[in-house]
Write a structure and sequence with these properties.
The structure holds 2 protein chains of 2 kinds.
Chain A lengths: L17 H9 L2 E5 L5 E6 L5 E8 L13 H8 L12 H22 L7 H19 L6 H8 L3 E7 L4 E8 L3 H13 L6 H17 L2 H13 L13 H4 L4 H11 L5 E7 L3 H12 L22 E6 L6 E7 L7 H11 L6 H9 L3 E10 L6 E9 L5 H17 L4 H18 L3 H15 L4 H11 L2 H11 L5 E7 L13
Chain B lengths: L16 E2 L57 E4 L5 E6 L5 E8 L13 H11 L7 H10 L3 E6 L4 E8 L3 H13 L5 H16 L5 H14 L11 H5 L3 H11 L5 E7 L3 H12 L22 E6 L5 E9 L1 E2 L5 H12 L5 H9 L6 E5 L1 E2 L5 E9 L3 H17 L4 H13 L8 H14 L5 H11 L2 H11 L6 E6 L15 E3 L16 H18 L2 H5 L3 E10 L7 E9 L3 E8 L2 E7 L4 E5 L2 E4 L2 H13 L1 H4 L9 E6 L2 E5 L4 E6 L6 E8 L7 E13 L2 E11 L2 E13 L5 H4 L4
Parallel strand pairs in B: 3-7, 8-14, 8-15, 10-12
Antiparallel strand pairs in B: 2-3, 4-6, 4-7, 5-6, 9-13, 9-14, 11-13, 16-17, 16-28, 17-18, 18-19, 19-20, 20-21, 22-23, 23-24, 24-25, 25-26, 26-27, 27-28
Helix pairs in contact in B: 1-4, 1-7, 9-12, 9-14, 9-15, 10-11
Classes of the chains: A alpha+beta, B alpha+beta.
């Protein structure tokens, strides 16, 4: 199961059973697949004239080809650039200009690829030609028209998200404009135009500078993942490595799109004031033209067994932070619900064991949280702990306290009261998220995309209810072992601290 | 003033890429009848090739049915016998009940010497438990039934809220009542809240974006009013349980509270229940005064906060904004939206799409209900494009102030705002919350309709008029947080002065010991004994400059290397230090007020902790410290028979005297750190040798935070070489 939002305020828990939840809920759901394999889940909620859309593509940064990390994210940015009819001032001319860029870029690459034998003078000339070609095409662009249409029609929450296992596109509209969404969403996948590719590549590099290079947490996570995984692509940052990003080409994005954006690999949820009959008609009309293509391959690179504990130290002038991870199986493992229970026992609300021990009682941490799945769940991944030491307390102290908490879970059986409490909370958390159209659309496509059935959202609660104290102890003993641990933490940079005036 | 918050959460660990930093959001207001979209004048017709023409219409040809009318539910309003105003709104979609008591208070009422009081009160009010139950007991009780009761005090309001399953409503309402009316503020949870606040103070300079936001607000609102204050170690340390109880009693009384409840209940029954629960609560207080007014504290110019561990510059540019009820607010919203509101805005197109210089770029006409918000243009760009990006932004501000926007721009901005207003009314919780907010700030119930009408009426002339009237580039404050060594062009290229922001986190003011005439006399006597022991006050005063060459051996735990250090000092406060570090030569200079530092990576103004460190060193300069009784503004106080406390109101140091020889034995002081609390430092003196008739230590052992940091061996001392101040200021 996907990680719950762990610090969310719990709103309520229905006392009905999950089976009843589904029965009640199913009345509002209409579900169908098009002939090309694209899947739709519609939920009627007519309380207000608004509707939320969520497109879930089963492809993420873990599918980035080697040497082309960041391409899944780059394509996501391109999906906002319009189509052959949206975003252009003159498509035939622009098409030529875009081809001109690629020709110029091919020539530049050809010279650069000579390596040591490349002629620097010629590289510069070709680079200048490339930039001229880019400017020529830029002048034929009607900038940001695609997003502007959505905004002026009252669209809110417009964004996309490239994750490790999946890429998602979403926004909400007043419900009388449903057809606009069908038109725009289908066109961006039917007739995408990767215009302004190389300028957008600069934007993506800025994004990386902001999220990773200029953030102590960002740097820490990047180092953590690259240390914890040796072979499996979870080791790569979801946004890609900057040296890969800066060399991405339009043809790479096109190839990624051709391979992964096939209709059967895409699920869509529409939740809100929607008429299912009309929506189904529009789905066929607008998305039916997408050609049926074979599903992309699954990842075959398997992480080798870990031979011993690993750690990585990141120099940062910021206050200390630490991440601890233990290898765990994928989300299809029979023990998956036990990991969910474990993370709820360890950190949820003010009664989580880590909060009680490290934050409340010992006061050595400002935050101490657990996540059962990191960075994503389709392949074997990590059970994660995030530690933020309080002032005057160290990473080591926090690690030790965490070890003691984990040791307690391994040596003593969990009391039934705690087990019951976290089961109640788990259900409350899920049900609470059904409350908003956009969150519901997100959940339904996520569960469909990961498990092939949105009902798993409810049936997974049944599985949680079956977890026993013995299961918790057994899995804790198997998972939290030194051999499969990776630790990443920050330390102050090593330099003469008192560069000036520290003594007199 | 901003609320201290912890920015750390697991969610932030997922470094997912997105298309925009935060999902684009629309105005949080709502229409009754959103106008249909007027057909757009296509500025440039799209040309389609025959073969690629899709068998679907153009978006321009789509026809939309009228939007279903939104039924705005009736909110039942009444006042309890004790004066508490109540708003009830039934909502039977789900079997839950939730509510909020909105309290007229806020951290704007924090006393200047106890900033953080409101925040701690808001935290400990719930965690510290009630008369009958500890906070931990409440945690269990509530989480067992997946319910919550939470308290919080922000800038201009406080709240106590609850949520419960329908069948637990009575139990949870009971806890809600107890937390609201009889919080116990147990000491352990006050301490916990203080730990959290201290942690957030220590971490406030870790993320560049947070620094830019905080410093911009502090500068633009100014330090004269609480809007520009920060929570500091010293202000947190002074807060006691009595302060919390007094703060609570002053603001938490029935007539000062608006209670809103929504969910699956029957209004008549809920009315009775609330009267039963709260009717007996009769606390009374005089009416709460208005919040302090914002003062105009314009500080035009550029402000630089140096942060070396980033590859981008995070900037905020702007000045004070306005309030929602300004007649011109709708036009200002439209203007700011065209300038930097969404994906269609001018700044997004220019800085992000065309220049490729930013991922995040936006402009917001910030407004509040009761006091001016902030007009902010903010974003981040790679260090070398800092100046180019800000120049481009300034050009766009000039452009929107000097010519009318296009018809298409106006239409897009108005349509975006008007068509999305429906989302402000799409749940009953939002409706109730808006109603409470309007009541709290004294706004008319139909304010949203007034706003909607205002939006619909905005013209191109209005946009130009408000841009000219309200945007004042000459008055802009720029705050840039980044690494100037990588800027290429420095901020000076933007014109105007550049000031360095001091990010030093003040350590708790070293509370000086009690002093009276006899302890001061004793202090003077002991210091004069020291002067005598090292060679006499005249000999000390005769030293007008010195050059000291020393060998610095850093402990292995702190880096474990050697460095040669040369200090040059000219009376009274000129100072230059050269270090030969493994990474290369580092030179720093200060005249006591400003200075610079030069490293192999480049040069930068001396600011923040470094400047404070140098100023501290100048205060403790051997020849000055030992003559403190002759320097105006300094006090020399005897603490113990052989311990002196020397202070000048800001700096404080303790000097321990060797009782046998009368020579200085060690000095002790707190040194500021770049982030986090101050480090306590002890310099232990040894190997005194005479130079020109003055005994000076040639061995110094430095302890930091109770651990040995370095051994210093002086190899050479020269006095009165006649060095000139301008020689010290020579850059390498």
């Amino acid at each position: 199961v996907k990680a719950f939002s762990l610090f969310a305020v719990i709103l309520f828990a229905p006392l009905v059973s999950p089976a009843q939840d589904i029965k009640e809920f199913e009345k509002k759901v209409t579900e169908f697949s098009l002939a090309n394999g694209m899947h739709f889940i519609l939920v009627e909620r007519h309380e207000a004239p608004v509707v939320s859309f969520h497109t879930y593509v089963n492809a993420g940064s873990a599918d980035d080809p080697s040497g082309l990390t960041g391409i899944a994210h780059m394509f996501e940015h391109m999906a906002f650039k319009g189509t052959e009819s949206i975003g252009t001032r003159n498509w035939p001319e622009e098409k030529k200009a875009l081809e001109g860029i690629e020709v110029a870029y091919d020539r530049l690459d050809a010279e650069r690829n000579k390596g040591a034998r490349a002629n620097e003078q010629r590289v510069q000339t070709l680079d200048a030609e490339l930039h001229t070609a880019i400017d020529r095409a830029q002048n034929l662009v009607e900038p940001n028209e695609y997003t502007r249409i959505i905004e002026e029609n009252g669209g809110v929450g417009l964004n996309a998200d490239t994750g490790v296992d999946a890429t998602e596109y979403f926004y909400s509209l007043p419900s009388n404009r449903i057809e606009l969404w069908f038109l725009l969403e289908s066109q961006r996948f039917l007739h995408p135009v990767f215009r302004e590719f190389y300028k957008e590549r600069d934007v993506v590099l800025e994004e990386n500078r902001m999220r990773v290079e200029s953030s102590p947490q960002g740097k820490l996570v990047q180092n953590f993942l690259a240390t914890a995984f040796e072979a499996q692509p979870y080791r790569n940052p979801p946004g890609g490595w900057p040296s890969d990003i800066v060399n991405l080409r339009l043809a790479d994005a096109q190839a990624f799109y051709n391979k992964y954006y096939v209709p059967a690999n895409i699920a869509i949820a529409i939740v809100g004031d929607v008429d299912p009959t009309a929506a189904k008609r529009m789905a066929e009309r607008y998305f039916g033209a997408l050609p049926n293509r074979p599903l992309p391959p699954l990842l075959h690179t398997t992480e080798p067994a870990q031979d011993g504990p690993k750690s990585v130290v990141v120099e940062s002038p910021s206050q200390p932070l630490a991440i601890v991870g233990y290898k765990r199986p994928d989300q299809y493992d029979k023990d998956d619900p036990v990991y969910d229970i474990l993370s709820l026992v360890l950190s949820s609300g003010r009664t989580g064991l880590m909060y009680e021990d490290l934050v409340r009682d010992k006061r050595i941490a400002l935050a101490a949280e657990a996540a059962d799945t990191f960075p994503d769940g389709r392949y074997p991944n990590l059970f994660l702990f995030f530690l933020v030491p309080a002032s005057g307390h160290t990473v080591e102290e926090n690690e030790k306290a965490l070890d003691a908490v984990l040791e307690r879970l391994k040596s003593t059986k969990l009391d039934e009261e705690t087990l019951a409490r976290v089961k109640t909370k788990a259900r409350a958390t899920v049900i609470h998220r059904l409350d908003s159209n956009s969150s519901l659309a997100n959940l339904l496509t996520t569960y469909y995309g990961n498990y092939g059935d949105w009902r798993k959202l409810f049936t997974s609660l049944d599985e949680l209810n079956k977890v026993t104290a013995d299961d918790v102890q057994r899995v804790a003993r198997a998972c939290f072992v030194e051999q499969s641990r990776t630790v990443a933490y920050t330390v102050q940079p090593k330099q003469a601290q008192p560069a000036t005036g520290e003594r007199q | 003033m901003k609320r201290a918050s912890l920015l750390f959460s697991l969610a932030a660990l997922l470094l997912r890429g997105g298309y925009a930093q935060t999902a684009q959001s629309a105005a949080s207001q709502a229409p009754q009848n959103p106008p249909a979209v007027a057909p757009r004048n296509a500025t440039s017709p799209a040309v389609r090739t025959g073969s690629a023409a899709p068998a679907v219409p153009s978006y321009k040809d789509l026809k939309y049915p009228a939007l279903k009318p939104i039924s705005i539910p009736n909110v039942e309003t009444f006042t309890l016998s004790n004066g508490m105003k109540v708003f009830l709104l039934e909502d039977h979609e789900l079997p839950v009940v939730s509510g909020t008591a909105l309290v007229r208070t806020g951290n704007l009422f924090d006393p200047a010497d106890k900033v953080g009081l409101a925040s701690i009160t808001g935290m400990a009010m719930r965690t510290g438990g009630t008369k009958g139950k500890t906070g931990d007991e409440l945690d269990r009780q509530l989480e067992d039934v997946a319910a919550s009761v939470e308290t919080e005090i922000g800038e201009t309001s406080g709240s106590v809220s609850f949520s419960a399953l329908k069948e637990n409503t009575d139990e949870v309402l009971g806890v809600f009542r107890d937390v609201l009316t009889q919080p116990e503020f147990r000491q352990d949870k006050i301490d916990l809240a203080k730990t959290e606040l201290r942690g957030s103070i220590a971490r406030r300079n870790d993320e560049a974006h947070g620094i830019s936001q905080r410093e911009f607000a502090n500068i633009v609102y100014g330090k004269d009013t609480p809007y520009g204050w920060d929570i500091e170690y010293a202000t947190v340390d002074r807060i006691t349980r009595d302060d919390l109880i007094n703060f609570y009693q002053r603001y938490f009384f029935p007539a000062n509270i608006l209670l809103g409840v929504t969910g699956d209940f029957n209004t008549a029954e809920m009315k009775t229940k609330l009267e039963q629960l709260f009717g007996g609560w009769k606390a009374q207080q005089p009416p709460v005064p208005a919040f302090p007014a914002v003062r105009s504290a314009a500080q035009p110019g550029s402000f630089l906060a140096v942060k070396t561990d980033v590859t981008q510059t995070f900037f905020v540019l702007g000045h004070q904004g306005g309030v929602f009820r300004d007649k011109d607010y709708p036009a200002l919203e439209v203007m700011a939206d065209i300038l930097g509101g969404g994906f269609h805005s001018r700044l997004f197109q220019r800085v992000r799409t065309r220049m490729g210089n930013a991922y995040e770029i936006s402009a917001v006409w910030g407004a509040n209900y009761d006091h001016p918000g902030l007009f902010e243009i903010e974003g981040s760009t790679k260090s070398p494009s800092t100046v180019d990006t800000i120049k481009a932004i300034r050009e766009e501000v000039e452009r929107i102030r000097s010519a009318e926007v296009t018809d298409a721009e106006l239409q897009t901005a108005k349509d975006s705002a008007l068509n999305s207003l429906v989302f402000a009314y799409d749940t009953r919780v939002k409706t109730l919350r808006r109603m409470l907010t309007y009541e709290y700030f004294g706004y008319p119930k139909d304010f949203i309709q007034v706003y909607q009408k205002g939006l619909a009426a905005v013209t191109k002339q209005d946009v130009l008029r408000v841009a000219k009237k309200y945007l004042n580039p000459a008055n802009f404050t720029l705050v840039a947080v980044g690494n100037p060594q990588d800027f290429g062009q420095q901020l000076e290229a933007l014109g105007g002065p550049v000031s360095t922001i001091d990010l030093t986190i003040p350590s708790p003011t070293a509370e000086t010991a009690k002093r009276d005439s006899s302890s001061l006399a004793g202090g003077k006597q002991l210091l004069q004994r020291v002067q005598q022991a090292v060679g006499g006050a005249e000999k000390l005063a005769a030293v007008k400059d010195y050059t000291e060459v020393a060998d610095f051996q850093i402990e292995p735990a702190a880096g474990g290397f050697r460095t040669k250090q040369t200090d040059i000092w000219i009376s009274p406060t000129y100072f230059r230090q050269e270090n030969e570090l493994p990474v290369g030569k580092v030179v720093a200079y200060s005249d006591g007020k400003t200075g610079w530092i030069a490293t192999p990576q480049g040069q930068a103004p001396l600011g923040g902790a470094q400047l404070k460190q140098v100023q501290g060193a100048l205060f403790r300069s051997y020849f000055r410290l030992l003559l403190s009784d002759q320097i105006p503004g300094r006090t020399v106080n005897l603490l113990e028979p052989d311990t002196l406390e020397i202070s000048d109101g800001g700096e404080v140091a303790r000097l321990v005297v060797n009782p046998q020889t009368g020579l200085p034995d060690r000095i002790m002081y707190d040194s500021v750190a770049v982030s986090g609390p101050a480090i306590s430092v002890v310099n232990q003196y040894g190997d005194f040798r005479e130079v020109d008739g003055v005994k000076v230590p040639h061995k110094i052992e430095i302890m930091q935070g109770g651990r040995k940091f370095a051994d210093v061996t002086v190899s050479d001392y020269k006095f009165n070489a006649g060095i000139k101040a301008e020689d010290l200021n020579k850059r390498p």
